[in-house]
Amino acid sequence: MPPTTETVLGVFAHVDTTVRALEELRAKGYHDVTVYTPVPVHEIEDVLERDRPVSRVRLFTLLGGLTGIASAFILTIWTSAKWGLVTGGKFLQYGPGGGIWGASIPPFFIIAFELMVLFGGIATLIGLVTLARLPRVRPSPAFDPRFTNDRFGVAVHCPPERGPSVHEILSKAGAEEVRFVTGASV
Fold this sequence. Notes:
Strand order of the largest sheet: 2-5-1-6
Radius of gyration: 27 Å
Distance between the termini: 18 Å
Number of strands: 6
């Protein structure tokens, strides 16, 4: 069965040629691009982040924070009820059906804040690891050791019939070397 995607790798010596290649690729509709750089480059980041949807990691953070707040209030009110603790100068008051209806809430805000931060932070880490599909135990076949020293790499994942078009775009943009990579996956 033939592969469904093909990877074309272009090796660049300069930032401006790399940015030009990325702009041309985006103009032609190629969005599945991986860029390798030896240092962070804001121009490359600006091109890659344009029109990208907002990360879903923030939903993990929100759910973790809300879980932390809810669990903190449940824990503190249950603890006060179980052991009859006086908090905020006020005993717990029980309603006619035996339920708690008079808990002193303000003293519990500190614990609620702390658990919100704790659960939100843990949920953010879980979201990051989950959505980034970490850990990646196998290195990418498109990676070249030169990308850690002084060269920039642009790997474009595309259907096999569009490979020659990508090869031409990378060559015209000023790539030192353009090659097809076998075994590379997204």
